[in-house]
Design brief:
Blueprint lengths: L1 H44 L3 H15 L5 H23 L1 H23 L4 H13 L1
Helix pairs in contact: 3-4
């Protein structure tokens, strides 16, 4: 009985490395399938071809949105804090160092988000919102 569990653990470990990418692929496929079906249904009800092109441009623009360094920086800072605390409470000096490094990378990313100018699209939308008021 003891030998069976010694064999099963590595097998499950190897299967996990295969199952996770396959599950992600299936999940992304099903998610994209729903979007494709939605676009197809909307395009059936539209008479004008230019409206269909506008709809497709909307989906493309969402993919091309710039990276928000401020958001990513805050997330990275808190991951670093979590790693540091895990090292402090349980796993030791090495993980504390890794946590501090990740936290400092997050601070650098956050600062970069404020140093780099906003994209033209963000500036235009901010001006338009201000003009509405």
């Amino acid at each position: 009985m003891h030998n069976q569990t010694e064999i099963l653990i590595p097998i499950f470990g190897m299967l996990t490395g295969i199952i996770i990418p396959i599950a992600v692929f299936i999940w992304l496929y099903k998610d994209a399938k729903g979007k494709r079906e939605t676009v197809l249904e909307i395009s059936k009800n539209l008479d004008d071809a230019s409206k269909v092109e506008e709809l497709l441009k909307i989906f493309e623009e969402r993919k091309k949105e710039p990276i928000d360094y401020r958001r990513n920086g805050v997330i990275t800072i808190f991951v670093g804090i979590g790693l540091f605390l895990l090292g402090y409470m349980a796993l030791g000096v090495v993980l504390k160092g890794v946590g501090a490094l990740v936290g400092l990378i997050g601070i650098g990313t956050l600062i970069a988000g404020y140093l780099y100018p906003n994209t033209g699209k963000e500036l235009t939308s901010a001006v338009e919102e201000f003009e509405k008021k």
